[in-house]
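lol forgot to send this yesterday, sorry. struct tokens for the thing we talked abt
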């Protein structure tokens, strides 16, 4: 008789929100007004000053729009941010090539799993409302939500455009958190 030692496999899902084709003009408004956080919540950051040819910190940046006039990318890892609801341990990646760029947020879905269902629904509804508002106010073509990499067809959960929310892969993604998100959209709880 052979003995078997079982292993508990825990799958970690990184949720991803991608703001596509963001005009450089809006970057400071988005990262600061719509994606709110305290400077004390910055865990780490990466900025590269092309003129000085050296790495610099978030605290060295006076204005993101000015930074992106000279440089193309940065990342900021934050303890928490507020986007209609609080998200913990968020990595913000920003990349510009010319006047338009993408802003990507990565965070663990796991942080929502222990929320009471009513609170989860309320928080996710506020989160989506804030993203819809962001899409309209900052002239963003498209916001994609999904599992990393969210732009892949099988990982995409939702797209937000100025007047429309489209859901994807409802038959594939079965986590309770994502099912609540699908229900919010399907029940027309979002107002434009």
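and heres what i got for the seq, position by position
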């Amino acid at each position: 008789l052979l003995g078997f030692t079982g292993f508990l496999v825990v799958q970690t899902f990184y949720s991803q929100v991608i703001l596509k084709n963001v005009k450089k003009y809006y970057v400071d408004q988005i990262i600061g007004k719509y994606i709110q956080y305290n400077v004390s919540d910055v865990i780490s950051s990466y900025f590269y000053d092309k003129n000085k040819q050296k790495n610099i910190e978030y605290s060295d940046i006076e204005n993101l729009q000015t930074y992106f006039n000279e440089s193309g990318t940065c990342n900021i890892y934050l303890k928490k941010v507020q986007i209609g609801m609080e998200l913990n341990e968020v990595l913000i990646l920003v990349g510009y090539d010319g006047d338009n760029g993408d802003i990507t947020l990565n965070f663990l879905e796991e942080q929502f799993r222990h929320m009471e269902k009513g609170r989860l629904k309320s928080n996710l509804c506020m989160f989506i409302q804030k993203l819809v508002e962001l899409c309209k106010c900052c002239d963003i073509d498209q916001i994609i939500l999904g599992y990393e990499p969210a732009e892949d067809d099988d990982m995409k959960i939702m797209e937000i455009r100025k007047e429309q929310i489209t859901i994807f892969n409802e038959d594939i993604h079965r986590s309770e958190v994502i099912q609540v998100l699908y229900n919010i959209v399907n029940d027309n709880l979002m107002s434009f």
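The mean pLDDT is 90. anyway ping me if u want another try
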